[in-house]
Design brief:
5 helices, two-stranded antiparallel ribbon, alpha+beta, 2 strands
Length: 110
């Protein structure tokens, strides 16, 4: 608990249930920083090459601002009527988070 508080004060930590990993997470693996490339046929017409670069060959940034609004079909396919949507890891296919949860659709996409 005390170390978590110190890390938070130094800007190096987050509240539970988040767990900070060490640098070894980003070590070179079979496919960049992952053992596998991103899956085929990503949802909402997400570009696989862009997703692979972001997920597996990237240390600092994600997609360019507004990518999800213009380059994907997310806003055309989803809306308030979709309810809660499960988002999955592009490499493993494991669920990452559900949204919007605890907020409106408008707050989520704002």
């Amino acid at each position: 608990l005390r170390m978590n508080l110190i890390n938070q004060l130094l800007g190096k930590g987050y509240d539970a249930p988040c767990v900070m990993g060490d640098e070894s997470i980003m070590d070179q693996k079979a496919h960049g920083t992952s053992n596998t490339p991103v899956q085929e046929n990503l949802r909402w017409n997400c570009d696989r090459e862009t997703a692979d670069r972001i997920c597996n060959f990237n240390r600092h940034y994600a997609e360019y601002a507004g990518y999800w609004e213009g380059a994907t079909s997310f806003l055309k396919e989803e809306g308030p009527e979709s309810g809660e949507i499960t988002f999955y890891d592009s490499n493993t296919g494991k669920p990452l988070f559900v949204a919007p949860r605890g907020r409106t659709w408008e707050e989520f996409v704002a």
